[in-house]
Amino acid sequence: MTCVRNWGLAGVLALAGISAQAQGDIVVGLQLEPPHLDPTSAAAGAIDQVVYANVFEGLTRFDPDGSVGPGLAESWDISEDGLVYSFHLRSGVRFHDGTELDAKDVRFTLDRARDDTSQNAQKALFAGIETVKVIDPLTVQVTLKAPDGSFLFNMAWGDAVIVAPESIGEIKHKPVGTGAFMFDDWVQGDRIELVKYAGYWGEPARLDHVTFKFISDPTAAFAAVMAEDVDAFPGFPAPENLPQFEADPRFQVLVGSTEGETILSINNKLAPLDDVRVRRAITHAIDRKSVIDGAMFGLGTPIGTHFAPHHPDYVDLTSQSAYAPELARQLLTEAGYADGFTITLKLPPPSYARRGGEIIAAQLRSVGIETEVTNLEWAQWLEQVFRGHDFGLTIISHTEPFDIDIYARPEYYFQYDSAAFQALMAALKAEADPEKRSDLLVQAQKMIADDYVNAYLFQLAIPTVANARLRGLWRDAPTQATDLTAVYWDK
Amino acid sequence: MRRNLILGTGLSAMFAGAALLSFFWVPFDIGALDIANKIKPPSGAHWLGTDHFGRDILSMIMVGGRTSIAVALVAVGIGMGLGVPLGLAAAVQRGGWLDEGIMRANDLIFAFPSLLIAIMITAVFGASAVNAIIAIGIFNIPVFARLTRGAALGLWTRDFVLAARVAGKGAVRISCEHILPNLVNLLIVQGTIQFSLGILAEAGLSYVGLGAQPPVPSWGRMLADSQTMISFAPHMALSPGLAILLTVLGLNLMGDGLRDLLDPRLQRGQR
């Protein structure tokens, strides 16, 4: 009997040991597993979700409120004409493999990203760079071809993080950066583990060990959070479950804004969608409130153009494409489609697309537009819709920050080709004066709304469900990231 | 002994009747979404409540039954239409090359679980109700071929077949005129069982998103849609779940009852 009791006691002690140790550990649930871990050579946001700010850092960085602050560059000087940026790097910054960060690494990173053979998904960020010069080990001088008001913003992206030539070969599976966490292990299909980097230059991380666990199924995600198997789940995939977490004292629910303009993308080159009256009819057939309530259970802000509502230059143009089914029918009649037409609607996996698609299909049907709905996996969606342009309509959230310039790319998948808009974007790029820039941005928002390029639905909200004792998590998602450097457990 | 038959036929008829009725009348239009009215528990207006788009679940079950029944019916038709002739052909010469060829091909199909075949087909040709029908139909072929062959082999040794052969009838004629009529009872019973399995398979395929695509309602997809809401809206999952359960139970009971009724040996035993 005593023996049994002792064993029991030992068990209790062991458990206590685990829970005390657990205060430095965190398990973070994520829906999507990254294809590899090099943020500078793929468009997948899932990569940045794991490594941005945790493992890799850029010259500048996004702060939790979306503003751009100093990163590896402590400060910078900009020449009078706005062409030459001199970045002063922090001293004593070491990569996880022990090598020191110097200006050569920065030059290597920028040259690699803008090279002709570069795999970088956002080459446009670097297109304006003329030369990169090493002045001394801690100073690097970047000369631009033309003044670019958004250069510091560009350098904060996950696609512009600083990498070292010594470790670039294995970066996809063994990323080596300068961040507060080091890559430790990746069990494919299950989890990625990071550990605290003792040699970090800045404020050390308060967590010792981070596990990113990949749970794609919303039901499984719900069960994992409820069972406290994961401590935090940014971008929780089932908004319908949030009230339950809110009512449970074990959890906190943070609902933040994202840069995700969720839109019904229209193939502008495909008849009959190449007729602006038809596109306008589609926008008037959609009741945004029903879509937000039905697909997102109320999470999301209606938008009337491709711009984030929390941006200071945003103009609310929702009334221009307000729900008006009668007007939609009338426009279709004018365009010669009084009896309607049939069009494909291809939907990627997230619930905003799948559920939103069912709602929009019903709304379009009521004005006479029949849709052939196809559900696609991400790989198929990228293949058929994004690269193949083989679609009529699709629903997608554009999560890149400040990405209205995609409308200036005629080969971009919705194929909006407007010389006026392209000129506007060129003018914006060259303009450094904040007031004139904001004026141009307003014009741009109005232009794409007037041309009814796409049907703008809502700004995606990001719900994060976390243990009630966790502090320091980002509420908003100004970029795709799960920055854990400031996260800690409250006593 | 007739209790099973009556209960089974009653349940099956109820769901078949509801599905037929939905062609002419449903309590609410399921094409019109009513988001403001979503996830309402059962009430006087909505007997089974509403789903996450505010659609009436009773109407969804009625129309969804159409999908299930149509898919299962055509799939069983494919299975019978191809399986029975194959089985008859195989039975003509036991152990002959035709027999071996057909039966080994059957084994090959049998070796894969039906759902796997369905996933393979839908992966190649895309997800739709038609592909679900083909997938379920293909897995029905060996069932009927094997059953037919087994029963036909026994019949080929019987005296009346010998008499027909002596009379100079060919194998095809004997198969059609003498073997097949003696298999009808067996096929009806097996058809009923396969029909219930077909409904189950359709629900399974739609549940994983490989069956009927929205907006066509399907019991399996209704289950999948209600999955994350089961903790606060159990009625959304219960209704399609019960519909599948009761239909399959009804068809199985009906199949059992029919066998009792139609099998001559059992009848003799009772007398």
TrEMBL record, chain A:
<dbReference type="InterPro" id="IPR039424">
    <property type="entry name" value="SBP_5"/>
</dbReference>
<dbReference type="Pfam" id="PF00496">
    <property type="entry name" value="SBP_bac_5"/>
</dbReference>
<feature type="domain" description="Solute-binding protein family 5">
    <location>
        <begin position="68"/>
        <end position="396"/>
    </location>
</feature>
<dbReference type="InterPro" id="IPR000914">
    <property type="entry name" value="SBP_5_dom"/>
</dbReference>
<protein>
    <submittedName>
        <fullName>Glutathione-binding protein GsiB</fullName>
    </submittedName>
</protein>
<dbReference type="InterPro" id="IPR030678">
    <property type="entry name" value="Peptide/Ni-bd"/>
</dbReference>
<dbReference type="GO" id="GO:0043190">
    <property type="term" value="C:ATP-binding cassette (ABC) transporter complex"/>
</dbReference>
<feature type="signal peptide">
    <location>
        <begin position="1"/>
        <end position="24"/>
    </location>
</feature>
<keyword id="KW-0732">Signal</keyword>
<dbReference type="GO" id="GO:0015833">
    <property type="term" value="P:peptide transport"/>
</dbReference>
<dbReference type="GO" id="GO:0030288">
    <property type="term" value="C:outer membrane-bounded periplasmic space"/>
</dbReference>
<comment type="similarity">
    <text>Belongs to the bacterial solute-binding protein 5 family.</text>
</comment>
<dbReference type="GO" id="GO:1904680">
    <property type="term" value="F:peptide transmembrane transporter activity"/>
</dbReference>
Automatic annotation (TrEMBL), chain B:
<feature type="domain" description="ABC transmembrane type-1">
    <location>
        <begin position="65"/>
        <end position="255"/>
    </location>
</feature>
<keyword id="KW-0812">Transmembrane</keyword>
<dbReference type="InterPro" id="IPR035906">
    <property type="entry name" value="MetI-like_sf"/>
</dbReference>
<feature type="transmembrane region" description="Helical">
    <location>
        <begin position="69"/>
        <end position="92"/>
    </location>
</feature>
<dbReference type="GO" id="GO:0055085">
    <property type="term" value="P:transmembrane transport"/>
</dbReference>
<feature type="transmembrane region" description="Helical">
    <location>
        <begin position="6"/>
        <end position="28"/>
    </location>
</feature>
<dbReference type="Pfam" id="PF00528">
    <property type="entry name" value="BPD_transp_1"/>
</dbReference>
<keyword id="KW-1133">Transmembrane helix</keyword>
<dbReference type="GO" id="GO:0005886">
    <property type="term" value="C:plasma membrane"/>
</dbReference>
<comment type="similarity">
    <text>Belongs to the binding-protein-dependent transport system permease family.</text>
</comment>
<feature type="transmembrane region" description="Helical">
    <location>
        <begin position="112"/>
        <end position="139"/>
    </location>
</feature>
<feature type="transmembrane region" description="Helical">
    <location>
        <begin position="230"/>
        <end position="251"/>
    </location>
</feature>
<feature type="transmembrane region" description="Helical">
    <location>
        <begin position="183"/>
        <end position="210"/>
    </location>
</feature>
<dbReference type="InterPro" id="IPR000515">
    <property type="entry name" value="MetI-like"/>
</dbReference>
<keyword id="KW-0472">Membrane</keyword>
<protein>
    <submittedName>
        <fullName>Glutathione transport system permease protein GsiD</fullName>
    </submittedName>
</protein>
<dbReference type="InterPro" id="IPR050366">
    <property type="entry name" value="BP-dependent_transpt_permease"/>
</dbReference>
<keyword id="KW-0813">Transport</keyword>
<keyword id="KW-1003">Cell membrane</keyword>
